[in-house]
Write a structure and sequence with these properties.
Order of helices and strands: HEEEEEHEHHHEEEHHHHHEEHEE
Strand content: 15-25%
Distance between the termini: 9 Å
Helix content: 40-55%
Amino acid sequence: MKESLEKKFEEIFGAGGDVRTYFAPGRVNLIGEHTDYNGGHVFPCALTIGTYAAARRNDDGTLRFYSMNFEELGVITSSVDELKYRREDDWTNYPKGVIWAAKEKGYEIPCGMDVLFWGTIPNSSGLSSSASIEVLTGFVLKDLFGLSYDMIENALIGQYAENRFIGVNCGIMDQFAIAMGKEGHAIFLDTATLHYTYAPVRLDGIRIVIMNTNKKRGLGDSKYNERRAECEEALAELQTKVKIGSLGDLNEAQFNEYQDAIASPVRRKRARHAVLENQRTIRAVEALRAGDIEEFGRLMIASHESLRDDYEVTGKELDTLVSETLKQPGVIGARMTGAGFGGCAVSLVKEEAVDGLIAAVEAAYTKEIGYAPTFYVVDIGSGPRRL
């Protein structure tokens, strides 16, 4: 991989200089959806698929970006001294945003750089191709320019770029899971405090199967920000009755006691999902640590039902994918993962049942939706690194 990246880099940007190659993973969230901006817990893991880069410093202030996934766009250039979001700059707004965010945080980027990217994460799949690029860019900057931040700060810089430069009001989960990934482990993260522990994911004879609806979506154009605003309004209403800093501070009994403070039935449903999903995530990690994978699967299913009925972020494609998956033998659990409105579902499937599941679900989904889904049997990988 290193050699092929360097060869392509030389073809696009010319030979010479100190060319370095890097990798950052994608991520999948096993449970804990739309809790990260509500002060709750999440349970993501890094994947072995992700984003590669080859990069070198240049002598001027020009940023030159090229993606092997969008070769038709050619080299897209920007200035390190004039970093503004521009729609015509397409995907390069993500690395540009990270450079802008690093500078906003006080880190010096003294010159430009040439960067070639190649991603193995499907775009708009909900496996965090954008956060992977952000964390990777932060890692490249740290290495090329000797910046002093650690991987948690790298994640925070990526989130800041997404919030303030891209305009998507995301939580910290995606960037954190990618920056802090550990092979064979998921991350049990309290998003309110950034306290985290690694939990071994022992799936003897069970595989993680990710199923892509292949429905395209963009977070900035979706109802993601609307859901976040609804939760913030619900929190403000609850705070008139109970002293809490976030929805994640409540358990189910407390929510039931105070929920009448939320005037809108719709906002009440949104808040109920945030509270109960947080509790499900805590219980799911306890179940996994106790070796009770069946309970973990049941909680995954309950998570999807809540995302469908209370949070309303699934849609026909995701619901079809999950419902058809749960009809198959050997399935422990399944749920949508990511922001929703398309993207992917994740399932735990007994190894001997994987091939049959893929064939059956692909046929049923294609018949119902009109086009085929894509399946990925994945492993849990580690965080960003220099190759």
